[in-house]
Write a structure and sequence with these properties.
Triger factor/SurA peptide-binding fold; alpha+beta; 4 domains; 18% strand; Chitinase A, domain 3
């Protein structure tokens, strides 16, 4: 039976805990108050502080407060999309999802929740984190499963590792200003001013309604997903160097001048050029992120060149602390996959921790990437291609939701 929601379980003890961990909070910065809203859905200071603790507990590095805030914004968008589609999770699905996540740290759900509790993390924080991921999986399946079909031609290409063109699809909004004869300079000056001034999606939409002469004016200038090759070359060149939300400089067109805002971009490369599986070795060094463990990892990294070298060095450790495996990308634990993605063959990483209370430093070495599979693995390749295409659709859709969202920071 799931526990009651986090909001109904906040106590004086929780407030004391937050103030202890985040002494910069004052009563004016109420931990229970809204930090921001996402399409009118609240995210509280408390939720952000809890997510920060959870990210820290699972060994995440970097600006944890920003990562926590960004992740919670995305979770709200995922949940809102699910409600729009009428999707929900069963209790069995929720339980299976928590079990799957906990098993990545070689613990049961109960053990993992208890370990989080020792770090001051409420069980509901873990439940909400897992639920958001599970419901998003349903959203992506519902919206894109029929579109992610892998043709025999694509499968043959992947099996043969044939080379294919690399492309991208983009989601843009347009603002088109006519160039009346004799007033061209004024229109170009206005386009330049708008290009420099517009910094938000809402601001761009308002400018479109005020100034644009395009047929998309009543839709806020929004265009549907399109291959970037459909855009004029000078526009495409700018778009590929921009971040989501940025606006191009004015682009002159026949009898018009235009500016474009990037709302989303997704990779369209065929999966033949992508990794199907990781071949990697993992050694768990006792001590977590202690100075001694980090020193040991640094010394080890300097003394090995290949996974065979690591395997030999690992003989000094208990057998259960070393493993080497070839794992499909979709089956590789997400945090490990993120590390391996950035490694070249025989490079190492020791940014992660594992085990109860992060008692081990995870020393990872990429032995190689598996792309070529035999004909007998044809169905496995099909499933890998399908999964990667679904992931690309999901990422693009999330960017689209983000571009359309109204986010207000308090």
């Amino acid at each position: 039976m799931r526990k009651t929601s986090l909001k109904t379980r906040l106590t004086t003890h929780a407030l004391a805990l937050i103030l202890l961990i985040f002494p910069s909070f004052s009563m004016a910065q109420n931990p229970y108050a809204e930090a921001l809203t996402v399409n009118d859905a609240s995210i509280t200071n408390f939720e952000i502080s809890q997510r920060v603790l959870m990210l820290k507990a699972i060994g995440t590095l970097g600006d944890l407060e920003k990562q926590a805030t960004d992740a919670l914004i995305e979770d709200r968008l995922r949940q809102q999309s699910a409600r729009t589609l009428g999707l929900t999770l069963t209790e069995d699905e929720k339980a299976a999802g928590m079990t799957e996540f906990a098993q990545r740290t070689s613990m049961t759900t109960e053990q993992f929740v208890a370990a989080l509790g020792q770090e001051g993390i409420y069980p509901e924080t873990f439940y909400d984190f897992v639920d958001a991921g599970l419901i998003w999986r349903k959203v992506v399946q519902t919206k894109f499963q029929s579109k992610a079909f892998i043709t025999e031609s694509e499968l043959n290409t992947a099996m043969a590792l044939g080379t294919t063109a690399v492309g991208a699809s983009v989601l843009v909004s347009e603002l088109i200003l006519p160039l009346p004869k004799g007033s061209e300079a004024q229109s170009i000056e206005l386009a330049t001013e708008l290009s420099n001034r517009l910094k938000s999606f809402k601001g761009f939409e308002e400018a479109v309604l005020t100034y644009s002469a395009a047929a998309t004016r009543n839709k806020g200038g929004k265009l549907d997903w399109m291959p970037i090759t459909n855009l004029p070359p000078d526009v495409a060149k700018q778009i590929m160097t921009m971040s989501v939300g940025e606006v191009t400089t004015p682009v002159q067109m026949p009898k018009a001048v235009a500016i474009f805002q990037l709302r989303g971009i997704r990779d369209n490369r065929t999966i033949a050029a992508k990794t199907i599986a990781y071949d990697y070795a993992k050694l768990l060094i006792p001590g977590g992120r202690s100075e001694a463990a980090l020193k040991q990892a640094t010394t080890l990294a300097g003394s090995i060149d290949t996974c065979q070298d690591l395997s030999a060095k690992a003989q000094k450790f208990p057998t259960e602390l070393f493993s080497e495996q070839v794992t499909p990308v979709g089956k590789t634990p997400r945090n490990i996959a993120r590390e391996l993605k950035n490694l070249d063959t025989n490079e190492v990483s020791f940014n992660l921790t594992e085990g109860a209370n992060n008692q081990y430093l995870a020393f990872l070495m990429l032995c190689g990437r598996t792309n070529k599979l035999s004909e007998g693995n044809r169905e496995q390749v099909r499933q890998a291609l399908f999964g990667q295409r679904m992931e690309a659709f999901g990422q693009g859709y999330l960017q689209e939701l983000m571009g359309d969202a109204t986010i207000v920071r308090k």
